[in-house]
Amino acid sequence: MQPISTANIHEYHSTFNSYDGTAMFYRYWLTDKSERVYDHDDLKIIVMLHRGGHEHSQRLTDMAHAFVKQGYQVFAWDARGNGRSGGERDHAESFGQLVRDLDEFLKVIKPKRTPMMSKLHSSPVVWERSLPVPMYMTTPPIFVA
């Protein structure tokens, strides 16, 4: 595979409503200009990044570019109350609330075509800086790398 230049990496922004209607912001990086991620036949796997703490997804841009240059598609979201996501600033009612937000986010980014699911082995990859073990234990379909 030929390395992908930064010039060929495209960043997109979007939002989704979590289980309680809170608007959650996310960004994603692709190697072409299509915003329809699940239409890609050559997708290796989805890498999902979450910084944890009081950070926002834009701080993950350099890491996202490193993954995209290797042919991955990368997604990152701003946790509830952080960055551009809604909710009380720097606050979540519980860890469970954050896990439910994660579950809703996975529904948004999960590929929709069956053939692609076999290429994904049914598991996106999650890079979680601060709480990987509880995240893995409470959300079984996720593989924590």
Task: Describe, in plain words, how this protein is organized in 3D.
- The chain has helices spanning 61-68, 95-109, 114-120, 132-138, and strands at 10-17, 23-30, 46-50, 73-77, 125-128, 143-144.
- The longest helix is centred in the C-terminal third of the chain and has 15 residues, at 95-109.
- It is elongated, with a radius of gyration of 15 Å.
- The chain has a domain at 9-109: Rossmann fold (3-Layer(aba) Sandwich).
- By secondary structure, it is an alpha/beta fold.
- A six-stranded mixed sheet has the order 1-2-4-3-5-6, sandwiched between helices.
- InterPro entries: AB_hydrolase_fold (IPR029058), Hydrolase_4 (IPR022742), MAG_DAG_Lipase (IPR051044).
- This is Lysophospholipase.
- Residues 44-114 form the Serine aminopeptidase S33 domain.
Succession of helices and strands = EEEHEHHEHE
Residue-averaged pLDDT: 70
Q: Would you count the extended β strands for me?
A: 6
The major β-sheet equals: 6 strands, mixed
Strand order of the largest sheet: 1-2-4-3-5-6
CATH architecture of the domain at 9-109: 3-Layer(aba) Sandwich
Write the CATH homologous superfamily of the domain at 9-109: Alpha/Beta hydrolase fold, catalytic domain
Rounded Rg: 15 Å
Distance between the first and last residues' Cα: 23 Å
Contiguous uncertain segments of 5+ residues? 113-145
The chain-level structural class is: alpha/beta
**Which fold name fills CATH's third level, the topology of the domain at 9-109?**
Rossmann fold
Summarize the amount of helix as a percent range.
Answer: 25-40%
Total helices: the number is 4
InterPro entries: AB_hydrolase_fold, Hydrolase_4, MAG_DAG_Lipase
Domain Serine aminopeptidase S33: 44-114
Pfam family, one: Hydrolase_4
Protein name: Lysophospholipase
